Amino acid sequence: AVVSTQSGHYGRGQFKYWGKSLLHRFGRKKMNPGRQIVTEGGPIQESIAEDAENLDDDPIFSVGGDLAFNWAYGNNGCRIALTEGHLSGANENDDNTHGLGNDYRCNPLDNTRIGSLWPHDVSNIQDCPLGSCNHVRLQGTDHGSGSSLMSGPVYGSYAIYVSMDAHKFPEPGQQLAQEIKV
C-alpha cells in the first residue's frame, strides 16, 4: 500500500506487488535494469479521506495505473511513479517524469549524481518538459538549488507498506504504525 498522511487523515492505494522486497528494489548500488513496472491491474483497493486536499497534482493520488520503480530516462531518474502519469522514454531527456525520489542530471542506472543542483524528493504531477518549463512544482524545500525547482507546500508524508499476504488495509481515520496487523 502507498499511503499519504495529511493532518491525521490519509489516502491510500493498495496494489498487488510483485514479490521482491523494497530493499532489493531500492537498496542496490546499481539500479540497472531499472524501469520496472512492479504491480499489475492498478490499485486493488483505494480509499481517500473525504477531507483530503491537493488531489489535482498529488504524485500518487492524482494519477492511476501501476507502480513504476527506478524509472531511468536520459540522465534522469524517478524512484516511484505511476504508469498513467507521464513516463519518459529511456533515451528521452525531458525532465518530465514526476513522482517520489527524483533527480535530474544523474546516472540512474548506477545510482550516481552528476551534480547537486537537481535532486528533489517529491515532484507534483505536471506537464513541465525541459526547455519549455521554468517552474517544476515540488513539495517542500528538500531539493537541490537548480533554478527551475520551485518549493511548495508539503501535502503529506508518504509511506509504503509491503505484505506478502495482506488483502486489506486500514481505512482512513484508523491509526497507522510501522507494523500493521490486518
Spatial order of strands in the largest sheet = 3-5-6-7-10
- Poorly predicted ranges (pLDDT <50, ≥5 residues)? none
Integer-rounded radius of gyration: 16 Å
Helix vs. strand class: mainly beta
Number of helices: 1
Instruction: Report the sheet-strand fraction.
Output: 25-35%
Overall pLDDT level:
85
Number of strands: 13
Major β-sheet, in short? Answer: 5 strands, antiparallel
Q: What spatial form do the alpha-carbon principal axes imply?
A: globular
Helix content: under 10%
SSE succession: EEHEEEEEEEEEEE
Q: Report how far the terminal alpha carbons are from each other.
A: 13 Å
Would you summarize the structure shown here?
Helix content is about 5%, strand content about 30%. The longest helix has 5 residues, at about 20-25. The chain has one helix at about 20-25; strands at about 1-5, 10-15, 35, 45-50, 65-75, 75-80, 100-105, 105, 110-115, 120, 135, 150, 155-160.
Could you describe the 3D structure shown?
The chain is 3% helix and 29% strand. 34% of the residues are buried. It is an all-beta fold and 182 residues long. It has one helix at 22-26, and strands at 2-6, 9-14, 36-37, 45-48, 67-73, 76-82, 100-104, 106-107, 112-113, 119-122, 136-137, 149-150, 157-160. The strands form 4 sheets. A 5-stranded antiparallel beta sheet has the order 3-5-6-7-10, with no helix packed on it.
Q: How would the blueprint of this fold be written?
A:
Layout: E1 2-6, E2 9-14, H1 22-26, E3 36-37, E4 45-48, E5 67-73, E6 76-82, E7 100-104, E8 106-107, E9 112-113, E10 119-122, E11 136-137, E12 149-150, E13 157-160
